[in-house]
Design goal:
The complex is a heterodimer of chains A (342) and B (369).
Chain A lengths: L9 H9 L5 H5 L3 H8 L3 H19 L11 H9 L3 E2 L4 H6 L4 E2 L3 E6 L5 H11 L12 E6 L6 H18 L5 H5 L4 H6 L1 E5 L3 H17 L3 E7 L3 H4 L5 H21 L3 E6 L1 E6 L2 E6 L2 H5 L4 E8 L2 E8 L7 E7 L2 E4 L1 H9 L1
Parallel strand pairs in A: 3-7, 3-10, 4-5, 4-6, 6-7
Antiparallel strand pairs in A: 1-2, 8-9, 10-11, 11-12, 12-13
Helix pairs in contact in A: 3-4, 7-8, 11-13
Chain B lengths: L12 H9 L5 H5 L3 H8 L3 H15 L3 E3 H11 L5 E2 L4 H6 L4 E2 L3 E5 L6 H13 L10 E6 L6 H11 L1 H4 L4 H7 L1 E4 L4 H17 L2 E7 L3 H4 L3 H6 L6 H14 L3 E5 L1 E3 L9 H6 L1 H6 L7 E3 L3 H6 L2 E8 L2 E8 L6 E8 L2 E4 L5 E2 L22
Helix pairs in contact in B: 3-4, 7-8, 11-14
Classes of the chains: A alpha/beta (342), B alpha/beta (369).
GO cellular component, one term (chain B): Rad51B-Rad51C-Rad51D-XRCC2 complex
GO molecular function (chain B): ATP binding; ATP-dependent activity, acting on DNA; ATP-dependent DNA damage sensor activity; double-stranded DNA binding; single-stranded DNA binding
Main location (chain B): nucleus
Chain lengths: 342, 369
């Protein structure tokens, strides 16, 4: 391994290479005072350099695995079987998603204005709190609002309906005894709401989330509504935008893995000129489209709302109808009819 | 908080000084760079950079609230639970009380349908004394199309609230509370918006109306807009939104319509192969209108009300709202402004709710009703 790949400052790296220390093995046998003399730096600094290099070399040699940090595919399969999912409250949608929005992954959901992105976001913030006894996760939610479209009255309605529907879904449970615990107010108290007013705050918050979630271990979903808004205005340097966005995506993926929580990013749509006509596509450009693990597009099909899995490493691309009702996200009306006929 | 100074964040002195020396003074400067860029620029190791970025992020990030405390706060602090009632019963019920505070509400529709009438009525309602159900405040009316008519407004007031307007001097007082701005160009409009930020708080302004957002942009040629990557109103969109939120007042904005270009399909690529057949069946012949400000703007508004006319009637439709189902209410324009024919909304399925029709409404004003 080369010295140039160590996480050192450029000037220290330069001094090392100039003094002939190009590989890690050349650093392994040198003592701190020698190094300090060779590089013409303080002894303290030399100790720091040796610390960094010994850490990196340990990672390579001292591990049983063939490659550090790697996991065999078999272990991953085992882990995937235990992967928890958050229900969307719409059976068809859950079906094509393999049971719901998966924890440990970043899912992007986009669609035209008024299709129900915020509604789905609110629904997920409520559904993550369904107690474990009722087949839920019993977790808490972080809701990052960049647009100011979060309506707390609406969250109350959705939470009420969610509680109402629970005994219906799981009739065997003694519902009355738990009723006192299950008040919409408690659901609301478990949603941590952050209002973000600029892209700097958005980046800062995503950096900070790591610490926040570590302190609040119950958080099982992070919803960003929307990831787009601040990055669509006042941004002249598009290369910088791409860099910052991919940084955000990476941090969120790490967060999802580390705390096994579901990250849901809502995205806006834009029009793109393609083969002589304008087509709809999700905003933030082509490089962003690689950033998320799963991508779901919400669209109108005739008079029904549909969700389409545009991208997913494990799910088949498919579409399913859903509807937005007073209670929140539910099965599409036609689905109920079909069931009745059968 | 984005412009918070790094020097006041209590970073360890060594790294704080290096940041200052490299002219990285605010959280925005630091967070606009990736960690590796910072390493290169500051000439320090990864661990120092990571811990500095973590600290800056923690301080620059906004505080959180639980949804519960948010709701309690709203209920306590706001008169009428944060809504300006439109006095159109059905519409108020659908919107849980009226036009919400702290959000942007948009009216979109063809010319002459009644957008300005609606705005005039709303300004009166906000100006009315509290014991008559108003907000008892001032109104700022940004009139970019020069369509504001004081005469018409007083007429609406006198017919809708005769008991108030027949009091001596009341008409003068009501009209005196409504401040009209008439910017003639986009830069002037920008300047107006910046100016009113302070007066919103100082002078008891309870409603801001922008009629219309479109007029000043449509003056610029379409090609210029396409050429620049950014939306010409990009700044205004985020500014108006933050204005609404920080002053907790309702903001009502009108938007014009334009006819849809034939090459605008408004479908996703995956839909094309999926239902190529059904796409052709769609009645393409129909003269189709779309909102003049595009999809970017539509994402930004919290509530969109579509005013349209078809089959001899006018309708007001709740096209986008986080709280209301897709409802349409037939309405008429009378001497007292807009009134609903029926308070029971017709539920409209599917994307039809955001379509804008404009056929035959020659019953321009029916003053005898």
């Amino acid at each position: 391994m080369e010295v140039s790949s160590l996480p050192l400052s450029p000037s220290q790296r330069g001094k090392l290479i100039a003094a002939g220390y190009t590989t890690l093995s050349s650093l392994s046998s040198v003592s701190a005072p020698d190094l300090a003399r060779d590089l013409n730096i303080s002894e303290h600094e030399a100790i720091e350099i040796l610390k960094v290099s010994s850490q990196s070399s340990k990672k390579i040699d001292g591990c049983h695995a063939i490659v550090t940090g790697a996991q065999t595919a078999w272990d991953m399969l085992y882990e995937e079987e235990f992967m928890t999912r958050i229900t969307t409250s719409c059976a068809d949608l859950d079906n094509i998603l393999g049971g719901g929005i998966s924890c440990k992954e970043v899912t992007e959901i986009g669609g035209v204005p008024g299709i129900g992105k915020t509604q789905l976001g609110i629904q997920l913030a409520v559904n993550v709190q369904i107690p474990i006894d009722y087949g839920g996760l019993g977790g808490k939610a972080v809701y990052i609002d960049t647009e100011g479209s979060f309506m707390v009255e609406r969250v109350f309605q959705v939470a009420e309906a969610c509680i109402e529907d629970m005994p219906y879904n799981y009739p065997q449970k003694d519902f009355q005894a738990r009723k006192n615990k299950m008040q919409p107010e408690n659901f609301l108290a478990n949603i941590f709401y952050f209002r973000v007013c600029s892209y700097t705050e958005q980046i800062a918050l995503i950096n900070y989330l790591d610490k926040f979630v570590a302190e609040n271990k119950d958080v099982k979903s992070v919803i960003v509504d929307s990831v787009t808004f601040h990055f669509r205005q006042d941004f002249d340097d598009l290369a910088l935008r791409t860099r910052l966005l991919s940084g955000i995506a990476l941090k969120l993926m790490k967060l999802a893995k580390k705390f096994s929580l579901a990250v849901v990013l809502l995205n806006q749509v834009t029009t793109k000129f393609n083969e002589g006509s304008y087509q709809l596509t999700l905003a933030l450009g082509d490089s962003w489209s690689h950033a998320c693990t799963n991508r779901i597009i919400l669209y109108w099909n005739g008079n029904e709302r549909y969700a389409y899995i545009d991208k997913s490493p494990s799910l088949q691309s498919a579409s399913a109808a859903y509807s937005v009702t007073g209670k929140g996200i539910r099965d599409a009306a036609s689905h109920c009819k079909r069931v009745r006929i059968m | 908080m984005a412009n918070k100074l790094i020097s006041q964040m209590g970073l360890p002195k060594s790294i704080g000084n290096i940041l200052a020396a490299r002219n990285i003074l605010t959280a925005k400067d630091a967070l606009s760079l990736t960690e590796f860029e910072l390493m290169e620029l500051l000439d320090v190791g990864l661990s120092e950079v990571t811990s500095a970025v973590a600290l800056i992020s923690e301080i620059a990030c906004p505080p959180y609230q639980t949804a519960l405390s948010l709701m309690q706060e709203r209920v306590q602090n706001e008169y009428l639970a944060g809504h300006l009632p439109t006095r159109l019963k059905g519409l108020d019920e659908a919107l849980l009380g009226g036009v919400p505070f702290g959000a942007v509400t948009e009216l979109v529709g063809p010319a002459g349908i009644g957008k300005t009438q609606f705005c005039l009525k709303l300004s009166l309602l906000a100006a009315l004394p509290a014991n008559y159900g108003g907000l008892n405040g001032r109104v700022i009316y940004i009139d970019t199309e020069s369509k504001f008519s004081s005469r018409r407004m007083i007429e609406i007031g006198a017919t809708s609230f005769p008991e108030i307007f027949h009091l001596d001097g009341m008409a003068q007082e009501m009209a005196g509370r409504i401040l009209v701005l008439r910017p003639a160009s986009l830069p002037e409009f920008t300047e107006n918006l910046e100016q009113i930020k302070l007066s919103l708080l100082q002078h008891q302004v309870k409603l801001l109306i922008i009629d219309s957002m479109t007029a000043l942009v449509s003056g610029e040629s379409d090609k210029d807009l396409k050429a620049s990557k950014q939306h010409p109103l990009g700044w205004h969109i985020s500014y108006v939104k933050s204005l609404a939120e920080f002053s907790r007042i309702p903001i009502v904005v009108t938007n014009q319509v334009r006819s849809q270009n034939s090459n605008e399909s408004f479908h996703y690529p995956f839909q094309v192969w999926n239902n190529d057949e059904s796409m052709k069946d769609l009645p393409r012949m129909e003269s189709h209108l779309v909102a003049a400000l595009g999809i970017h703007w539509a994402h930004a508004v919290t509530i969109r009300l579509v005013l349209e006319a078809h089959s001899g009637k006018r309708f007001i439709k709740v096209a986008k709202s986080p709280v209301s189902p897709s409802l349409a209410f037939p309405f008429v324009v009378t001497s007292s402004g807009i009134s609903l024919v029926s308070d029971d909304g017709i539920e409209i399925p599917g994307p039809e709710i955001s379509a804008i029709h404009c056929q035959g409404y020659d019953d321009i004003f029916d003053f005898n009703r």
